[in-house]
Amino acid sequence: MSDVMISVITLSACQNDDAILRNDFDGPHEDGSYKWAIQTEGGIYHEQRGSFKGSPEPSLLVEGQYQYTAPDGQVINLLYTADENGFHPTGDHLPTPPPIPPQIQRALDYIASLPPRDY
């Protein structure tokens, strides 16, 4: 998704007619790197930077964060990276899976300890 498209999506989430306090764009540069940040007076903030990594086939690494206040008053802050392995968000508001019950974990450990089988 392009920088402009992300910016449009971010700005469309603005409540009412919030003024834009910050709108910085830098890039894309010759090496493909870029960074941008947007902030509104309503408390929405989104920044992102991207660069290519790896050789001989480089892949795009994107890192960013956004923050806003949810309708219930909770401040939502999400950090993310995106690379050849997908989108990786982190944030206190994201659900987490329950722990694996001890009996199931013992069974999984036992299965993992068995020698491989040829079929």
Determine the strand fraction and express it as a percent band: 35-45%
Shape: flat
| Strand count | 6
- Give the quaternary arrangement of the chains: single chain
Strand order of the largest sheet: 1-2-3-4-5-6
Keywords: Cuticle, Signal
Protein name: Endocuticle structural glycoprotein ABD-4-like
InterPro entries: CHIT_BIND_RR_consensus, Cuticle_Struct_Prot, Insect_cuticle
Pfam families: Chitin_bind_4 (PF00379)
Description:
This protein has 119 residues and is of the alpha+beta class. The protein has one domain. It contains two helices and six strands, in the order αββββββα. It has helices spanning 3-12, 102-113, and strands at 20-26, 34-40, 45-53, 59-69, 75-83, 86-90. The chain has a six-stranded antiparallel β-sheet with strand order 1-2-3-4-5-6, with helices on one face. β4 (59-69) and β5 form a beta hairpin. The longest helix has 12 residues, at 102-113. It is flat, with a radius of gyration of 21 Å. The model is unreliable at 1-11 (pLDDT under 50). Keywords: Cuticle, Signal. Pfam families: Chitin_bind_4. This is Endocuticle structural glycoprotein ABD-4-like.
Q: Tags for this entry?
A:
Insect_cuticle; cuticle; CHIT_BIND_RR_consensus; signal; six-stranded antiparallel sheet; single chain; disordered N terminus; 119 residues; alpha+beta; 18% helix; Cuticle_Struct_Prot
Summarize the structure.
Helices cover about 20% and strands about 40% of the residues. It contains two helices and six strands; from the N terminus they run H-E-E-E-E-E-E-H.
